[in-house]
Amino acid sequence: MDSFQNAAVLWLIGGVLLATAELLVPGVYLVFFAAAAAITGALALLFPELSLGAQLAGFAAWSLATVLVGKRWYRDFPVATADPLLNDRLARLVGETVTVVQALEGGEGRVRVGDGEWIAHGPDQPVGARVRITGAAGGSLTVEPVRTLTA
Questions:
Q1: Contacts of 90 (CB under 8 A, 6+ apart)
Q2: Does 67 share its domain with 131?
Q3: Looking at the whole model, is its pTM more than 0.70?
């Protein structure tokens, strides 16, 4: 086994190690480099005359190609989740009923959300009024008065 075949085997081992690392620490990132290493190893086996520089350039090119293909794949076929708003705190607040702690005057005031206070925009409301969050942008909330049913 000459040095170029050793390099091909090392590329294949590297691909397996990267794929194993992806399984141990999932993040859907190392899998692309594992695929690029495996492709580079296979090409190095098929074309033993490839220099180390050509192998490294091929690995870089295949890495870029697999990352771009993966990026497009996940854009076109997003992974379904049970909680799509998991990392979007503001969006999770929409629909919540909160209390005005600084009167909404001139369209701006403050509301209590959990144990914190947020800037709120909406129609004028006195302190203590209950309002519903209808939107959020830039760290402030949009609110509307809670409508109560009358008999």
A1: 136, 137, 139, 141
A2: no
A3: no
